[in-house]
Write a structure and sequence with these properties.
324 residues, alpha+beta, two-stranded antiparallel sheet, 11 helices, 37% helix, 17% strand
């Protein structure tokens, strides 16, 4: 079946869940398909459908290779933090960013960012537009914004559909919101009794954006070979790790620093960032024999075309539960 012969559209069932619906442009043309062909095609559609619905809530799909290319720009960890906050307000099918159904503009974005200076707000938004993270939509004298589908997509895209072979990371909005809120609480607690030298910890959220392309699709570790399969046919992830523990090329603190754009990465700074993200429920820091490994919560980021109820994913969830 050729792509021009059908179309997939996002629809909502009576329970408010998102689903993809197949519309065949020429029904008679495919009335002769065999049972085997139909079953294979239904499996393909279900796989596509799973990309749009998940019991863990709404998610955006980040395109790994394109996000990795942002390392070659002047995007800072602080920029990344402000952008991740906007991801919470992404809407389906290329609709403008909105909060509680109200489309966001410069002023309302500034309120969300807790920035009052219009020039500072405009400068950062224009930087995102220039880098291609956002698209600006002029509505008279007011500007609205859409996630650029070259990097992030939510639902059925209008311009840049996801290729089935393209590597992407699901970023779940519910867990991201929880992590951002937890970081804010940690910062408030640290500053509660400080009269001078207030600390700002919220930039650690930017680290999550930077490491998305390094999220291993089977194990949830941060590695330099995120797309490399480690399991054999019929083998569990835990058995694969036991059989060959050196298959994963874990990211070091220095590598993470370079990903963030630091020429001379301060390892202590990366450690502090990761400890805060661990306390916020985003990351687990595993240390042994002077080596550090980083595990991402599977309800924050996910790569598999499944609902996340497999045995290994449940095991990782339990690990996070034990280290709260």
């Amino acid at each position: 079946m050729k792509e021009k012969d059908f179309q997939l559209e996002l629809v909502f069932n009576p329970d408010g869940q998102e689903q993809k619906r197949l519309i065949v442009n020429d029904v008679d043309k495919y009335s002769w398909m065999s049972k085997k062909q139909l079953e294979a095609y239904r499996a393909q559609l279900e796989k596509e459908n799973m990309r749009l619905r998940d019991k863990r809530g709404d998610f955006v799909m980040g395109k790994s290779e394109n996000i990795r290319l942002l390392e070659e720009t002047d995007l800072t960890v602080s920029d990344r933090r402000y952008f991740m906050i906007l991801v919470l307000y992404a809407r389906f099918n290329g609709e403008p960013l909105a909060k509680d159904g109200v489309t966001l503009n410069n002023k309302s974005i500034g309120e969300i960012w807790e920035i009052s200076d219009p020039k500072t707000i405009s400068k950062r938004l224009n930087k995102f537009v220039k880098l291609g993270l956002l698209e600006k939509i002029k509505n008279g004298r007011v500007s609205n914004y859409v996630l650029n589908e070259l990097y992030f997509q939510m639902g059925k895209g209008k311009k840049h559909n996801i290729d089935p072979g393209e590597k992407f990371v699901k970023l779940f909005k519910n867990q991201l919101s929880t992590v951002i809120g937890n970081v804010r609480k940690i910062e408030q607690n640290k500053n509660r009794n400080r009269k001078t030298g207030q600390v700002n910890l919220k930039d650690v959220i930017g680290l999550l954006h930077a490491v998305m392309p390094y999220f291993h699709y089977e194990t949830y570790y941060l590695v330099s070979n995120p797309d490399e399969r480690i399991t054999l046919e019929g083998e569990s992830v835990l058995d694969a790790l036991k059989r060959s523990p050196k298959q994963l090329k874990h990211l070091s603190k220095s590598q993470i620093g370079r990903i963030l754009g630091y020429e001379n990465a301060n390892r202590a700074t990366i450690s502090r960032y990761m400890q805060i993200l661990q306390r916020s429920g985003a990351v687990m820091v595993l240390e042994n024999n002077n080596r550090t490994r980083y595990l991402i919560h599977p309800d924050l980021m996910f790569r598999l075309d499944s609902d996340g109820t497999d045995e290994y994913t449940e095991y990782v969830r339990q690990l996070f539960g034990q280290h709260k």
